[in-house]
Design a protein that fits this description.
700 residues, OB fold (Dihydrolipoamide Acetyltransferase, E2P), Rossmann fold, 6-stranded parallel β-sheet, 22 helices, 20 strands, globular
Length: 700
Amino acid sequence: MYLSELRIPASRLTGVGLKAVRDFASLGVLTVADLLMHLPRDYEDRSRKTPFAAVRGGGAVNTTALITGHDYFGFGAKRTLKILLRDETGEAELVCFGRNFLAENFPQGMRVDIAGNFTLRGGRLQSTSFEMESAGARPELFTSVLSIYPLAGKLSQKLLRKTLRQACEKFAFHLEDEIPPELLAAGGNLSLPQALKAVHFPQNLEEAEKGRASLALREFFFLQMPVARRAIERKAAVRTARTYPRGLQEKLIKSLPFRLTPGQEAAIEEMRRDSEAAYPMARLLQGDVGCGKTLAAFLAAVLFTAGGRQTALMAPTELLARQHADNAARYLEPLGVRLAFFSGSLSAKERKPVLAALGAGEIDIIIGTHALFSDDVEFRDLGLVIIDEQHRFGVAQRARLFAKGLSPDLLVMSATPIPQTLALSAFGDLDVSTITTMPPGRKPVETHLAQEGKEKKVYDWVRRELEAGRQAYFVYPLIEESEALALKDAASMYTRLAEEIFPRFSVGLIHSKLAEDEKRSIMEKFSRGEIAVLAATSVVEVGVDVANATCMVIEHAERFGLAALHQLRGRVGRGAFQSYAFLVFSPELTDVGKKRLRVMKETTDGFRIAEEDLLLRGPGDLTGIRQAGLLDFRAARLPGDTALLLRARDEVRAILEKDPGLLLPQHAALRGNPGAGAGAAEAAPAPGTSAGRAGAGEAR
């Protein structure tokens, strides 16, 4: 049996009652396979003794001691037991809050094995968190490496270890491996049964790490298999190499009031070569906020226009799609390029002529939203598909658009800089163009941190900018007030900003619940300067470009991911004026939260920020939206396991090059759609893992 087939409910294991089932479910553990992949968060090495004298100032103890007496402090219901201990090196005491019954279980004169964390209080070593047994009764607890698991509800480490031992003995040790033996042999990795035993019940910490690395290799294998297969299948779609006329592209470049950056020029040349190759282009175009990716994509599109072929550019929101359409009109219509906009908000009367012109080939470039997936959208000759913010689209949606052409070229864009390790993982089937140079004249945005309750200085600073004729964004994590969360919300703060803080200036409000026409109207007024202050949610994170806006204030900044903070900060600094970002944070900020905000203050380099986000938060949320299989690893750790990732990638490629049609029964779920485009959401989770949960964007 394979791990992916092990769907026996965890409730079948002895000792897992109804309450435990509920607590396990909150951890995502529903089946025995889930339980086996519920990996330790840490280990406690009790393979060596650590007496009291070894931790005079406090620390982890593992010793055998004599109970020398019992003592109590407090009165009535608060009367609390102290157990006094002495080993061969010194004395200590156990403070037993709520456990006075231990006096009967562990009487004076008993020798006990004791392990726990001790601190020095009043000159004496004390512990409130400990494990204790009669000496020699359970030697495995005090002579081995113990796994420490994430818990929920009333689950205990003891129950976790007990049920996992059952699961391993009954099932894990008899499982067949799902990855090729040559992949294991190449790096001396453990088989699946060996890896599960090593990670849950290791003899030493080195064995635990070897077990984890072996499981991580499997996760990378299952991630890379569909990615590599898509790459092979795309390149198998051989077509006649062609040459597109470059006159229109060169004309557009000459019409620009500025020079392209070296990064843009390099990306444009890479895309041109791809478009003329003997198999379809599949390229990721990424770069930092404001680096000019969209213009580079337009320059790729006009090659196809000059060759008589059509381009579809798809964006995740109507707001962003309309901005792309406005920019395209500014750059391309003077050159005679025929453009159209298409979204679900178009009426049937407006929709009909657009569809007719598209099918007749009278539209060169159509820019729109999810509506481009619709069955009635037909092209005469779709040559290029451009997908912006690709991670916000599902696999089936991308495939439907891709299927509207005959193996069209594919360009996906990401406004969130992607670390190299993630690019290898999620976009391994794509060639990557990275624009690292910024347009000349751009001034780095100054970033300031402000603690909640001290916003007056921020408001005063913004007021000076407004008086100088500039504009400002105020971004909040909620649309409306919430009883469950004590956070500022956009709707309430819109009123306060307008009536109390900036009464002399026009204030607008925008969020996702507004109708598309209303959102468009508000953004147009803000772009024209008719609105000076815009209260918003993260709906303004992507694509909003107002050169006169110089202030970005993000309240409850700790509630946003680093990638989102960087995107929001990128909404200012688009013009010639010095711009500022103010991150207002909670006084109860965690250490990780402090590190994240310090990164934002120290750098405006999106790639460094993305790497730090990877280290601090893990890969699952980097794009700002969590999807099924989005690098939701149990064992793998990036970027630390990059070498393992590369090994898995190379081995998968070698396997598929020998047998491109390889699809073992247990790998059936791994077949990706060759036309669906890249994206981590397309990679099936490794067997035994739970899918990630969607849930990004504004809180309602």
